Each structure stands twice: as structure tokens, then as C-alpha cells.
Amino acid sequence: MTILLYDGSFEGLLTSIFEVFEYKFDDAEIISSANYQQKDFFAEIHEVISQKEKADRVLKKLEENLGKEGIRNLLWVYLSERKDLERLILSAVRYSIKNPKENILQDFAHPDIIEISKICKSVGRERHRMTAFVRFEKLQDDVYFSKIEPDFNVLPLILNHFKNRYQDQKWMIFDLKRNYGIFYDLENADFFYPEEHQILQLRNPKNLHHDEEKKYQKLWQRYFFKTNIVERKNIKLHIQWLPKRYWKYLTEKN
Amino acid sequence: MDFARIQEKLEILADAAKYDVSCSSSGGNRKNNGGLGNSHASGICHSYTEDGRCVSLLKILLTNHCIFDCAYCVSRKSNDIKRAAFTVEEVVDLTINFYRRNYIEGLFLSSGIFKDADTTMERLVRVAKKLRTEHRFNGYIHLKSIPGASDELMKEAGLYADRLSINIEIPTEKGLKLLAPDKSHAEMMKPMDFVKNELILYKDERKIFKKVPKFAPAGQSTQMIVGATNETDLKIIKVANHFYQNFNLKRVYYSGYVPVLEDSRLPSIHSQVPMQRENRLYQADWLMRFYGFRADEILENTNPFLDLEVDPKLAWALRNREKFPVNINTAPKELILRVPGIGTKSTGKILMARRFQKLNLEHLQKMGVAVNRAKYFVEFESENIFNRLLDEQNLRKILLSGMKSKFQNPFSQQLSLF
Ligand code: SF4
């Protein structure tokens, strides 16, 4: 058994997969070094250094076999941050290399493939929810700011949505769980990784609010209250659509 | 800006608009070139009310002043309520500021008829025009057309709005006469017909000139109130079907009547909102739009009401058992779509997966099929013991004991009808 240790990046993962084939490791496990605890004394350790060239070759092969959508699915599995993501992705790649003529991601009767399809469904739902539940607050410097805490690492998946939608305002979305965000400055939308003291500020931006912010929040809250039809109350359905874990970031629920 | 006054208006005019359910933001498709906002075909629900309905648009009336007196409407002339009216600027400002904070996908603007049809319609169009031209707003705009508005105004409305609608409200002409004496079916069909023809015209012109401005790209829709008069479900879905086929409607919405007024022509103020019935009508509507069912397959003249206990697809399957079991590994798509518990997504997965290997019940379960319903109606190469129950009289009972509805409501009178 060989354990491949990589740096936790998607590129590193793809490099690892390349090396599994390159060195013909039949019995291989890929683990991010951050998650590695030495438990198996008999396993051979193989350290992987991320290499763009190797990663690209894997991507190219996958695109031939599975198309862009196939790559997207595997990226989503990676962003799900699941414990066994490396195993699932490696399994799918192996299956695909063996059956290059088929889109093996459509084999929904295969246990790993159906698992991947379920993960993609969850990640897709979370991605969609984050396009819906982001609530921007206008700050003094006219930046529209939002904080989120998604279950999966979906920030990279919502960048384009917000970039297309809000072109004439500066905005920022900050992931509290992973301590990084996106900032759009009217030209580019880029990831940023704030320092410790900045993070504290970002967690509680109330004293940075624009004068009118509170007022529009109030209007929205009153609108939300008034648009409800009491006679049709159905809290079960309400919570099913709007799970409680999101409430603390929703202006209308506070 | 006087926020306190705006807030008061907003409360009144959101409250008055809330009974209109036709406010999804789907079907739009507008790109953003440096301005504010865009709209996608699928639309986004940004929040959900406590009654479980999606909030995707700022849904308000421009005013609840109305010269008409429709019995089912809170804004009607003879109802003694607080009245308010927004200015064009106020609606524009609310829309923009809500949109910038990602509260909404856009605006759904409707209005009481405060003077005559054209004056009212002109004001609605002015809001949309200001949003599009002065604020470069590309979010979704749905305008409710005013019955009797001129063709010129309708045409202008279609240039700025993504969707236009006229609510037919009462499915039968007789019912409408009774409850909305100022309105006529013919007058409501006229703008619908106009929009339909404009849409066809637009498509033709598009073929020749690439740059023809878009006309109501998300099409038109309508709403029917259910349970205010005593029409049957069969009548309702036939009317809906007629709209889909002859007016190219994108959606027909069904709104269970919420008793808001004491009136001898209406159900008592204490009657329950027919939510279960409304839900079944939506299911029937889906069967017509996505599953290839015809209205007269879903309901027959001899029994013109939808079964409240089981969904219409299951009800159809129980009435047509000779069409089952369906072989999952060989049957064509149309038949698989008809199996209770198998939706359009699962159907797609089944068709793909069966190229790789023979499927069994366990596979279906993993794909997300509701096997508690489907298992009696499908067969595989190896024996499926549940098929034996297909001929049983009490299959319906067995099925019912294995299901629970999200709409089960201990206070619903609807359930005790059966
Ligand atoms: S015309 Fe419209 S707003 Fe006026 S009473 Fe009738 S339904 Fe209500």
C-alpha cells in the first residue's frame, strides 16, 4: 500500500492522480498532508509536489472522456471537503481510464458514481442557496458586504454569478468558516485572504454601515412580514425551504 | 426620503398584493452590460414566507385605490381599508435598493385601477421604463396588465417587462360575472391575445432582423382563484390547458381562495383555504406540461374532482393498472415517466444508467426514486414480488399507509370530505 501525501490543492490532487498511474501504484491512497496522521506503519509514503503540467494532463484526458461537465463534477466533489473525496475522485478517474469511450459518470448504478452524483447534488444546492441567501450590507465606502458560512467550499462557484449580476457596485463576500473572500472593485473579482485583525473587523461590520443601511433593512423586514399570508401558515414547509442554520445571516429573519 | 412614510405605504401595498401568487422569476433571460443586474432562465428564490411560498420579487401594488368592486379582492371599492399610492420614483428606489442587497430578483408590479385602464397602465409602464433606461436595470420585471388598456401601452409594456400577465381569477364566465361585475372575460382575453400575437410577430421579425428589441421575453402567465366559485377541477385544468395551447402561456397559477371578506356570493369567512386542492392542481398542471398527460386523462367527466388523498399521477396509475408493470430496463421514456414515484430527473438517470448494466429496485432507490410508491408498478428481469399486489383491491390503502403528505393539516376540512 502506498500513501500519497499532497498539499490539499486541487492541482496537487490531480498531480497525485497522475503519479498513481505514472508509478503504477495499484493499492494507493491519496491524503492531504494536513489530514495525515501516521497510522499505517507499513504503508509506503510518497510525497507529491504539485505540478501544473501533470495536473493539466489529467484534466485533458478527463475532458476527452467526460467533457467539461465531468470535470466540473469532480471539482465539486473536491469542494465538498468530504473526508473520502480523494478516494472517490481517484475511483472515478480509474473507471474512466478503463472505459474511455463511455461517460462513466452516467453509470448511476455504480456505488462510487451514485455517491459522486449525490455529492454534486448537495454542492449544487448549497451553491444555489448561496446565490440566494447572500445579503449585502452597504458600508460607508459604498462597498456592499456580505458574510456567509456555507457547508461546502462554494465561494469559487458563485464568483461569476455575482460578478455578472453586480457590475456597477463594489461588493465583497466573506466566508467566515474558511476565512477568505471575494472582492469586486468594479473591474475584477478576486479572492482575498485577510489578516487576523481584519478578520475581526469583517465579522462584525455594523460600525462600518452606511447611514441608510439600517433603514433599508427595516423596509425589507417589514415587507417580508407583510407579504406573508397568515391563513396559509405552514412552518414545516418554511423551515424545509429555509433551514435554520442560514437564519442568522438573513436580514429578514433578524 | 421620508422612510417612515415609505414604510407605511410599503406595508399597505405589499399586504394588498400578497394574494397574487403568479410571481416566480423564471423564464427571464437578460444579460448585464455594465449596468445593474441580470436574469436567468431558472430564477432564484431569495427567501420564503412563513406560509412556505418563495419570495423572489418585490411584489407590490402601485396603489390599492380601485374604482372596481370585485368581490374576492381586498382592494375593492366597497371595502373599508387604508389606501395608499406609491410614486414612480419610490417604486424604482425600493426595487434598486432591494436588488443591490440581493434581496430580490426584480419587481412584480400590479395595481388597483385608480382612474381608468390606460392611466393606470401608463403609470406601471413608466416604472419599468425608468428602471430600464435611467438605471440600466436588467433584473426581472413582471407587470400585471390592466384589462382594457390600449394596444399601444401593451406594446410599450412588452418592451420593458420580462413578463406580462392578466389574471383571469375566476375560471368560468358565469362566475366572473357574479363576482367581478365590472370585468368581462372578453376584455381580459383581448390583451392576452395581443401579447400572444406580438410574441409571434417578434419571433418572425427576429428571424430577419437580429436587432429587434425583445418583447416580454419570459412570456405571459395568468392566475385563477380556486374555490371562490364552485367550478370543478376538470373545468379548471381544461381552462388551463386551453391557455397553454391557444395563448402560449408560460404558466398558469392556481391560488386557493383566502376568505378575506364577508359577502353572500363568496364562501364563508370561516372556511379553510383549500391548500390541498391547490397543491393537487399544481401537480395536475405539471403532468400536462412535463409528463405528457392530457387533461382528460387526469380527470374524467364522471369524477371531475382531483383525489385529495393521492397525487394525480398515482390516481391515474391506480385507475389504469393494466398499463403496468413497466419494465425499467427496456421501456421507452414516456412509459417510465408515467410510473408513480419516478420524476423527470430520475427518468433521465434511469435511461443513462441502464446502458451500463441491468437495474434493480435497489438501484432505483439510490437514484432518488420514491420506491415506496414505484415498487408496485415496475418490473425487472428478476422477479419483483410487489407486482403481485398490483391487482389487489386494497393497493390504494397499502400505498396510503406508506406515505405522508407535507400538506397534511389537522384543521383542513378538505381531507374529511372523503
Ligand atoms: S379591478 Fe383588480 S384591484 Fe380592482 S377590485 Fe378588481 S381585482 Fe381588485
Q: How would you describe this structure to a colleague?
A:
The complex is a heterodimer of chains A (254) and B (418). Chain A contains 8 helices and 8 strands, in the order E-H-E-E-H-H-H-E-E-H-E-E-E-H-H-H. With 254 residues, chain A is α/β, with parallel strands linked by helices. In chain A, the strands form 2 sheets. Chain A has a 5-stranded mixed sheet, covered by helices on one side. In chain A, strands 2-1-3 form a 3-stranded parallel sheet. In chain A, helix 1 packs across helix 2, helix 2 (52-79) packs across helix 3 and helix 2 crosses helix 4 (111-133). Chain B contains 16 helices and 10 strands. Chain B has helices at 3-15, 88-100, 117-134, 151-160, 173-179, 185-208, 233-246, 275-290, 295-298, 312-319, 333-337, 344-353, 361-366, 371-374, 395-401, 413-416; strands at 47-48, 54-55, 57-61, 106-110, 140-144, 163-165, 220-226, 251-256, 326-327, 378-379. In chain B, the strands form 3 sheets. In chain B, strands 3-4-5-6-7-8 form a 6-stranded parallel sheet. A two-stranded antiparallel ribbon of chain B has the order 1-2. The longest helix of chain B is centred in the middle third of the chain and has 24 residues, at 185-208. Chain B is globular. Iron/sulfur cluster (SF4) binds at residues 66, 68, 70, 73, 75-76, 112-113, 180 of chain B. Residues 66, 68, 70, 73, 75-76, 112-113, 180 of chain B line the site of iron/sulfur cluster.
